[in-house]
Amino acid sequence: MKTAIVISETSSKHITGLGHPENGDRVDAIINNLKKNKKLIWKKSKKFNNNFINATHSSEYVKYVKDSFPNKGLIFLDGDTIVSPGSKDATTDAVGSIITAIDGVEKKEFKNAFCAVRPPGHHAEKNKAMGFCIYNNVAVGANYLLNNYNYKKVAIIDFDVHHGNGTQDIFYDNEKVLYISTHQYPYYPGSGSYNEKGKHNNIFNIPLPAGTNSTQYMDAYEHVLKKLKSFNPEFILFSAGFDAHKNDPLAQLQLTSEDFYEITRRTLVYAKNQCDGKVVSILEGGYDLNALSESSEEHVKALLEFAK
Q: Which end of the chain is more exposed for a tag (fewer CB within 10 A), N or C?
């Protein structure tokens, strides 16, 4: 068994404008670095039934997004979420990447996978674009596992430095999905307090102060693993944002590149025994290109170690 890297050829066509931190250079930096590793399997995002998006977002919102893609120029969906003509294919292919990855794991084509695609998704709510995010890729993936593979328990672990308000919004009342987030708090988008627990105690937020270092973070992550074990998921999805890195310009946590190996490794130790190592990861944030390249490599290094 191997680890797959799922990519989308349209990611670079999602143009966000000069100086925007969420740009095509991010995915290029990750892919160009990972191509040095000859042990990885490379897969392209495949087409899928768009009804899977409708299982996550409202039909009104999906129509709004489709109608928003311009023939030329840029359109703002909110203050910092921008679409261009190429965004139409990029957004659906980003969703398609996690579906491709899940299918590959289920069919035993590979053990686990990392989707190196954009735009990110975890801020996109059921009815609203937000924070660079248009469709909530990881949420579509979780619903795909529930509806297409009839799983009863899916866990989403979000280690992006920003709280995934969209993912929390979508699954707040869903007892089949556990959403766990470690994030800087108080910070954008303002949600993610410890008291936000979900209708079925299925939301677990670990708010961390600015300046949190590696040791403090890893101590906190033990609570992630404890919650994961009590929920006992059948499949784990990562919202893999790498902007908790100390060099990231958009936040103030102090993780190193190697910490993302340790976060992943600790989770996979659990996953190996409890859900047969079924893990799919998808890119969220990370805006310093060197830190992003190094951190994603460390993340994939751990995925590879457990892909045997």
A: C
